[in-house]
Amino acid sequence: MSFFNDRLFAVSAIYTEFYDPGLALPPHSLIVNTISDADLCDLALTRAEEIVARSTAPVINRPANVRLTGRIENARRLAAIDGVIAPTTRALAASALLTRRPTWRKTPRVAAKSAGFSKICQRSWVRARWRH
Prior knowledge:
With 132 residues, the chain is mainly α. Helix content is 33%, strand content 3%.
């Protein structure tokens, strides 16, 4: 009986924010990127792109492709598809959401577009604000 088979394999995990780019990559035959939040994980995606560039192994979920999936970009792309109704999505500073009279209402063009607009604070905003 052979010790190695198609059901037994080794996994090396690299936590990109803490990885030293001066170190050699561990032996590998595939890279699986599990970083999925383009809005919050810029540093992690940058480091993952550097790791991918140093490897010749196939990549599942390329970091460069994940960068294209931010909330604003997804809404813009979806709105361009015939028959799809997608919300207008904008990035606002937390201070604009927390003030009594939000700054985004002071611009007439934005105020006209936001008639009936209800503020939805995505979970990512809360995580970003309190994560450190």
